[in-house]
Every structure is written in C-alpha cells, then in structure tokens.
Amino acid sequence: MTEPSVSPTVKPLSDQIMIRMEAIHKWYGAFHVLKDINLTVRKGERIVVCGPSGSGKSTTIRCINRLEEYQRGRIVVDGQELSNDVKQIERIRREVGMVFQHFNLFPHLTVLENCTLGPIWVRKLPRRQAEEIAMRYLERVRIPEQANKYPGQLSGGQQQRVAIARSLCMNPKIMLFDEPTSALDPEMIKEVLDTMVTLAEDGMTMICVTHEMGFAKTVAHRVIFMDGGEIIEEKPPEEFFTHPESERTKLFLSQILHH
Amino acid sequence: MPEPRVPHSNLPPPTSTTGVVGWLRRSLFSSPLNAVLTLLAVYLLYVTLPPLLRWAFLDAAWSGEDREACRSGGACWVFIRVHLDQFLYGFYPDEQRWRVNAAVLLLILGAAPLFVRTVSSKFKVRLGLGLLIAYPLVAFVLLKGGMIGLPVVDTSQWGGLLLTLVIAGVGMTAALPLGVLLALGRRSRMPAIQTLCVTFIEFWRGVPLITVLFMSSVMLPLFLPAGMNFDKLLRALIGVTLFQGAYMAEVVRGGLQAIPKGQFEAAAALGLGYWKTMGLIVLPQALKLVIPGIVNTFIALFKDTSLVLIIGLFDLMNIVHNATTNPAWLGFSTEGYVFAATVYWLFCFSMSRYSQNLEKHLYTGHKR
C-alpha cells in the first residue's frame, strides 16, 4: 500500500453543504444499481468511497455531475438542484471537476491546450489569462516543463497529474476522483496521491473512489463503504479501520489489507 | 583470481545481410518461389515495357499541325496538342479564357501558405476557412461573369478540365460538411433527426449516381413550371453533392465510433455543450482517423465526375471522347484516352500523397 508522504493539516469544517444526495435510486434496465443513496458533503470535506467492484461507487459519484442519470431521488450541488435542463447540468458541471481512471486527456491537444480548453470555451477567459492559470496549476502538479508535449508522450502518472491540473483550471468547488490510481503502475501511484494530498491541504471539497487505504487514513474525514448498490458503512477513518461494524466491511478490509 | 572481463567489441554484420546483396536476398530471392516470381516479373517487364516506351516516346509524333504528321506508327501526341485548349477550357470563349487562368492562379496563390510547413497552424485554419467561404464566390463571378464588366459566359460553355475541377471542387467542399452533419445526425439521440438522416443516407447510397444524374435532367423539369430552366451544371452539382455526402457520412461515422466514451465524458465534465464537444474534441480526432476514408471518397468523387457526360455536360472525359469522333482526327482515340487517364491519375495520385503527408503531420502519438 502506498502512503502519501505528506498529510494535510486539520482545519475545522464549515457548515455549508456542498452536495446533498437524497434517496437516489438507479436502474440499468431491470438491474437495480443504486439503492437509496443518501449522502451529504460539507464544504472542505474529504470523503473516500470504497467497496468491491460493481458495488456502485463510481456510479454514485458520476451521478453528482450527471454523467449518469438516475431515476429517483434528488441531488443538490452547491445550492443548485440537478434537473433535466441541459443548461443547468452544464452550469453544475462547471463547478465540479472530475478525474477519471483512464485520465481521458484529449490526445490531439498539447498538455497546455488540454488545460486551457475549459477556461477559454466554457469560462470565456481570454487565452493569455487561461494560459497563465494553466501554467500555475501545471507547476502545482510539478510538470510545467511538459506543457507543450502531447499526452501520448507522457507517462501514466504524468498524464493523471495533467488531468488533475485540467480540472483545477476550471476553478471547481468540488473535485471528484474516480479511481485515479487504478490504471497506474505502482511506482507512479505515489506522485498522483501526493498531488491529491496537496489539494486536500488547500481545503478542496473532495470525493474520491479509491482502494488506497493509506490515502483514506491520512486524508479522509469520512470513509464510505458500499456494497451491492448500498452504503453499508460510513465512519471517520480511524473508526472505520479499527472498528468496522458490518461483516461485509470486515471481509472487504481483510481482503484489501492483507495481501 | 578471475581475470577481469573484457567487453566484447562491436563487429560489423555479415556482408551478405547488408548493402545491395543483402537487399536482393531479402526482397527478391528470399525463397525459391520468390526467386521464380522475381524472374517471371523481370521477363514480363522485358516483353511489355520496350514496345510501350517505343509507342509512347521513341516513335511518337510530337510536332505538326494535322494527322499528316502522324505516320511514324507511334503515338500521335499532335492530336492532344492541337486539342489541348479545348480539353482544358471546353467551349469557353477564346478571348475570355484568361478568366479561367486567373481563377486557377488565385486559388494557387491563396492556398499556397496552407502547404508551407513553417506557417502557423492557427493562420492556416483561418486562411482555409476564409478561402472556403470567399473563393467560391470570387471564382463564380470570374467564371460566370455578368458583373464588374465581365461578359456572361453561360455554364453550358464551360467544359474540359475546367468543368471537371468545378464539379469535383464543389462536390468535395460541399460533401464533407454535409457528410459530417449527416453522421452526427445519425448518431443523434433525437429520434426525428436520426430517422431523417438514416433515410437520407440509405436513399442516396442505394441508387447509382447515373440514375441520380438522369433523374435530375429528365424528371426534375417535369416538376418545374413550364419554361423555367434549371441550370444543368447546378443540377449535376447538387446530385453529386447529395450522393457523395451520403458516402462521406458513413466514413465520418466510422471515425466517430472509434472515439472512446471517455473523451465525451471528459468534455462533459468540463461543462462543454454538444457542439463544442463535437467541434473541439470529437470531430478533430474522428476526422483525423478517417483521412484515408475521406480521401478515398474524394478520389472516387473526382473520377465519378466523368459520369456527367450522361446529361450532356462536356467534362474532360466527354470532351476528349468528342474530339476522337472528329472526322479530321479519326483513329486516335487511344491517345485521347491515355491523355485523359493521365490527367485523372495525376490529380488522384496527388490527393493520395497529400493525405499521407497530412496523416503523418497530424500524428500526435498513441492515444489513451
């Protein structure tokens, strides 16, 4: 397991609610993938979602920016309720950054262009200003020297850091991470986790689907365990790892921690 | 005490694997069967090439004014030389042909920066779009006239290579955007648009171009009020565009399907809407992937322009054919068709080479 080398300083959480999911149900055809998901995330809160594959963790966070539709329930993001209105969905997506398992960088654009695309075309910033912002974030993920390369020329870890920078350039209020280290070679996991820890230190509201339990221990305010489309357990990390309640959680932890 | 290990020095490879000998062994005589095939090919070239060269060059007649010059038994290129102006301009009036030259020159000058490597790609895109919009208008005014003091030259007088290029040029520049829109429409989630596009594509792909051209000249006038004359060239242009647009749509759709779902999701997560996602993320990648298919369609389109002879337009092919039936020049159809084929080949081959160049230039490494 990879332990991040830095740990974020503890700041008191504000009471402002950034995400509220209420009784979310989702079906793929007849298959009930999400069953009554309720989740409230406060500003600056960092949540790690874990669970076996197929448990609905990715689907859950993908509902928050409407990459997945759901059939029942309601989601309010930063005071705005998700609806079927395309403009409303786009407004919410602007405030919610997302980092994917397979990076999903745009291969036909340079690293810098990947980072400026959103600010220029969605935020309508002038090119000069967008490039300044992009360089600032590329420096923060420690790869400013790659700005004019194409994603295909970078290593997996570097690509994922570019993907993080690309999301940050939109100045989002919330960051969603969908298994950001699962597709990486072991020696590259740490550089990505370290980047995420620095982000946490700045007080970013984060929801992270991951199996990196070291990251969960040092960074998360809450760990959520999902199985079979349900939230089984929801606890601060120190309790979650030492006193899991449900049998399923215990089984999962024993599988993931002892190998 | 072990001796210190001496690193092995670099030896040259065996001479039989490098240089001319190595190449011959690898490429021509790598196995008995390949050796036999190589010898057979050499023999075939020996039998066919010398007579061909003798006919086309050594015994050919190059100078002279009429068929009397062509008694050498070789090709009669005099026939081409005498008719060259006609092959290039058709029945465009002699004293107005400078307008055609001017239009061609304008295109060459305008498009030249697009082919220079050092010019920035942003400028190229702007210039390209500008040309795409402005050039057809300028060229139309120049060729057709009736404005700015230029006498009108009716489209029925356009012909030869000029007509072929007009049909091919308009067909290509109109069929590609049409194809892109149809492909997007076919993948649309809106049932009405999808049905419309599928129907359109399947209809136009299902009928031969000849039928389309026939219908446009025979059937269309039946629906128009009596006395109203619909320009023949325009009818051909519309027919060719709609027909090739349907083919282009399927080529582009192939490219769209190759774009991973993650690209759409990443664009959506940034808050990009449908048209921006398509225009900035998906189409640039999809079109790049299907450059070979697009150029394939372009080449087919270029050659298909020769079918307009069916509705009585005198494109390059038809005007060459017409010249071979000229009583003063009977018996020289081979030269005529060889000439036409060479011109078609030159244009198509250039397109093919350019597309390969473009692919190499646009390559940005492995995609993820």
Structure description:
The complex is a heterodimer of chains A (259) and B (368). With 259 residues, chain A is α/β, with parallel strands linked by helices. Chain A contains nine helices and ten strands. In chain A, 37% of the residues lie in helices and 24% in strands. Chain A starts with 16 loop residues before the first strand and ends with a helix. In chain A, the strands form two sheets. In chain A, strands 6-7-8-3-9-10 form a six-stranded mixed beta sheet, sandwiched between helices. Chain A has a four-stranded antiparallel beta sheet with strand order 2-1-4-5, with helices on one face. Chain B is mostly helical. Chain B has a domain of 166 residues: Orthogonal Bundle (MetI-like fold). Helices cover 68% and strands 0% of the residues of chain B. Chain B is built from 15 helices and no strands. Chain B starts with 18 loop residues before the first helix and ends in a 6-residue tail after the last helix. The mean pLDDT of chain B is 88. The interface between A and B is medium-sized, with 30 and 24 residues.
Layout of SSEs?
The complex is a heterodimer of chains A (259) and B (368).
Chain A: E1 17-28, E2 31-42, E3 46-50, H1 57-64, E4 72-77, E5 80-81, H2 86-95, E6 96-99, H3 111-121, H4 127-140, H5 156-168, E7 174-178, H6 186-201, E8 205-209, H7 213-219, E9 222-227, E10 230-235, H8 237-242, H9 247-257
Parallel strand pairs in A: 3-8, 3-9, 6-7, 7-8
Antiparallel strand pairs in A: 1-2, 1-4, 4-5, 9-10
Helix pairs in contact in A: 3-4, 3-5, 4-5, 5-6
Chain B: H1 19-27, H2 32-58, H3 77-89, H4 97-111, H5 121-144, H6 160-186, H7 191-206, H8 209-218, H9 220-223, H10 232-257, H11 261-269, H12 274-289, H13 291-304, H14 316-324, H15 333-362
Helix pairs in contact in B: 3-6, 3-14, 4-5, 6-7, 6-10, 6-13, 6-14, 7-10, 8-10, 10-12, 10-13, 11-12, 13-15, 14-15
